[in-house]
Amino acid sequence: MRRMPLPRAWLDAMCARRNERTRSMSLPSSQVEIDDASLQVTPVTTRAQHDAFIRLPGRLYRDDPQWVEPLHFERRQHLSSKNPVFEHLDWQGWLAWRSGKPVGRIGAQVDRLHRQYHGDDTGQFGLLDAVDDPAVFSALFNAAEGWLASRGARRITGPFNLTINDECGLLVEGFDTPPVMMMGHAPPYSALRLEGQGYAAAKDLLAYWMRVDTLAFTPAMRRMIERWHHRVHVRPLDRRRFDQEMTTLREIFNDAWARNWGFTPFTEAEFRAMGADLKRLVPPDLIQIAEVDGEPAAFIVGLPNLNELIAPLNGQLLPLGWLKLLWGIKMRKVRTGRVPLMGVRQAYQFSRLGPTLALVLIEAIQQSFLKQGIESIEMSWILEDNAGMRNILENIGAYSYKRYRLYEKTL
């Protein structure tokens, strides 16, 4: 299948960003000595260390034209007690320092909800970023693995930032294009260094790209939709019943994904927090619900790719970043988008209705994206072994353009 280019304006915006001027960071007083006398690993405990932890990726990757610096404010919120994930997850971060300068970071977490589904000996790592130095990666993983082992972990998977329902996987293919909203980016050497620590591939996640205006169904797909049109109805989310609608979406998602690799359900609090973000950022018609005989059976969520607007800010909302972001949201058309969530209840997944529900939702979200002026979208992520979904996407003109890898290791 012919590879279609990303919109020029999006690539130009990524490549034209100015370098962020990062403030100097001093070496914290508490250190963990390792073999290299110039290299220390410090647990992240203070506010200054959290700030250094959040800013480090921008410092490491500022010369990468595809890098998009996450908003520092949002990252602080994600790692704060305000994030409801911490109701069931214990997390610790570390920074690696050399000659007083931060050169790497890693996080590790024990998720009690994950352990209910996958065993009490599980643990995860994430938020991994470092210079291309095996010694730095080794020092970081020694700290993370030791912390996890002390909490009973014998099987470690990752990266998860912080759970499988957040940004996850390490980019291993597709380094030549920028990430879309809530997807990661990493330099090519990271996979090699991670594998050098004894981690092996556990599962690959794919991101698909397609032009919205050229999306087309095959005659067989059209016949399938027509066959079930008397039972299937698609509608946008009803904002007048927003809380009730979000409860329905959560129930569908947790049912639809329950058998997937690494599944951890969304809690009510987590989905409520996500719903608050969706309510602020997403037009109602970018959330579509498919009903079978009047009962909600599947849904799809589309997002405008706010990375287009965030990229020039270099993570900063002050002094004028928030004005630029608000202006961009109100005045500038975002040209790309992402579909991060889609689910079909298990009762329909292996029936003839299953692919029909996926098709009618994709068609509905296509029309919504077109009304928003969005030209191209990423469908992510898709499990590599999800042959049914991949077949649908590839038959409507989408192509796989990025690959993210989840790793595992037994201690």
Explain what this protein looks like in three dimensions.
With 411 residues, the chain is α+β, with helices and mostly antiparallel strands. 35% of the residues lie in helices and 27% in strands. The protein has 14 helices and 16 strands. Strands 1, 2, 3, 4, 5, 6, 9, 10, 11, 12, 13, 14, 15 and 16 form a 14-stranded mixed β-sheet that branches. Strand 1 (32-33) and strand 2 form a beta hairpin. Helix 8 packs across helix 9.
Descriptive terms for the model:
27% strand; 14-stranded mixed sheet; disordered N terminus; 411 residues
Question: What does the secondary structure layout of this molecule look like, with pairings?
Answer:
Blueprint lengths: L7 H8 L16 E2 L5 E5 L3 H15 L10 H7 L10 E10 L2 E11 H7 L3 E9 L3 H16 L5 E4 L1 E2 L5 E2 L1 E4 L15 H7 L4 E12 L7 H9 L4 E5 L5 H15 L11 H14 L5 E6 L2 E10 L2 H4 L10 H11 L4 E9 L1 H4 L3 H19 L4 E8 L3 H9 L3 E12 L1
Parallel strand pairs: 5-6, 14-15
Antiparallel strand pairs: 1-2, 2-3, 3-4, 4-5, 6-16, 7-8, 9-16, 10-15, 10-16, 11-12, 12-13, 13-14
What's this model, at a glance?
By secondary structure, the protein is an alpha+beta fold. It is built from 14 helices and 16 strands.
Major sheet summary line: 14 strands, mixed
Q: What does the radius of gyration come to?
A: 22 Å
Give the oligomeric state of the chains in this entry, treating copies of one chain as homo and distinct chains as hetero.
single chain
Q: Overall 3D geometry?
A: globular
What is the tally of helical segments? 14
Beta-strand residue percentage: 25-35%
Mean pLDDT: 89
Contiguous uncertain segments of 5+ residues: 1-33, 318-323
Q: Helical percent range?
A: 25-40%
Q: What structural class results from the helix and strand content?
A: alpha+beta
**SSE succession:** HEEHHEEHEHEEEEHEHEHHEEHHEHHEHE
State the end-to-end distance: 42 Å
The total count of strands amounts to: 16
